[in-house]
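Sample entry (242 residues):
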Amino acid sequence: MASFQRKGLQARILSSEEEEKLKRDQALVSDFKQQKLEKEAQKNWDLFYKRNSTNFFKDRHWTAREFEELRACREQNPLYNTERCKVFQCDLTRDDLLHHIPPESVDAVTLIFVLSAIHPEKMRLVLLNVYKVLKPGRSVLFRDYGLHDHAMLRFKAGSKLGENFYVRQDGTRAYFFTDEFLAQLFVDAGYEEVANEYVFRETVNKKEGLRVPRVFLQSKFQKPPKDPAPPTDCFAEKRSLN
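Predicted structure, serialized as tokens:
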């Protein structure tokens, strides 16, 4: 297992009150409820999207600004047409992407607020699944919740599922990443680290006079240009047994 020395920005330092809150809220949700949440994960997210289809999601214009690969995909490909694209629904932890996409045919993969909704034990399956369809030398573009984001500190007692892993009142779950954990996760799945840094923002509510700190992790991990033997994964094993 590789070790990493982080450079640049570190995780947000908590106030004494915030540290005390996290120390108090150590009790974990019962195993029975955790198994129920995992079983009902898709249903809970389907309900979330149904409730918030028009009043929650905003256009992510910043993605093209932050990730030059997305600009390149849109501007260097003359066949790009926003009215023609392949859309399908799948569970990245279970459904093999090769059933929908040719191997090593994808120029860029975005995992923007995706992994945080998945149980930490299944995140590796997602990365292995993506690895097979990504072209050698191309990247996974990542942005998600970082450790000590304000959303993490808002959870009430009884919401903790594990280290940096919480459940909302509607049953959806959220994981808050450290740069070390994310780097290890990707490298263990065969990727190379290109960039992996915390992004600090501040949300201001002028009406209520509130300023809250937001912490995200923005990263880029590349599939090696000359692909070595791919990591063994459950999807390949399943196909070989059938």
